[in-house]
Write a structure and sequence with these properties.
DUF6232; transmembrane; PH-domain like; 3 helices; 7 strands; 2 domains; single chain; three-stranded antiparallel beta sheet; membrane
């Protein structure tokens, strides 16, 4: 027996599938497909807010440098304002790395729910529902690999 995928909620082997609390032999699955739900605009707004959070200090820094060059103030004040603006822009670098990790994680999770369906003799059954796009991809590919040898027989 070959194990294609295993986690606490899903097990896909060369003999069968265990998902959503139900077990199916591979030969029982006549067809497998997926469907995507509607987008979660909250997730998309969260990504936009993270992007703005990253850009805001850079914009403030650039504005301070431009302001220092545009104003008719003493050389010491101009240098202080320009250096302050550059420091604000540079200060975002360590924080930006953390925020970009969160943006990456939000893309891994996805912005919509995804369902894996299977057709058996009794009708269509929901095998799995998740909003984690990365996990969905792993499970669906494993399911396809498990079903390939069954089709060839």
């Amino acid at each position: 027996m070959t194990t294609y995928y295993r986690d606490p909620e899903v097990l896909i082997t060369s003999t069968g599938v265990w998902m959503n609390g139900r077990e199916f032999r591979l030969s029982e699955l006549l067809q497998v497909w997926y469907s995507k739900g509607s987008r979660s605009w909250g997730v998309i707004a969260w990504r936009g807010a993270l992007g703005l959070t990253i850009l805001l200090p850079v914009v403030i820094g650039v504005f301070a440098v431009l302001l220092a060059l545009a104003l008719d103030i003493s050389l010491g004040d101009t240098v202080a304002l320009a250096v302050g603006g550059i420091l604000v822009g540079v200060a975002v670098v360590p924080v930006a790395d953390l925020l970009l990790d969160r943006v990456d994680a939000s893309y891994d999770r996805g912005s919509r729910s995804i369902e894996i369906w299977g057709r058996v003799r009794e009708g269509d059954v929901l095998l799995m529902r998740t909003d984690n796009a990365q996990r969905f991809g792993r499970v669906y590919r494993a399911l396809q690999r498990a079903l390939e040898p069954a089709v060839r027989r």
